[in-house]
Amino acid sequence: MDFGPYASFIGGAYGFAALVLGALIVNGWRDGRAQRRALAALQDERGEQA
Question: What are the TM regions of this chain, as residue ranges (predicted)?
Answer without folding.
Answer: 6-29
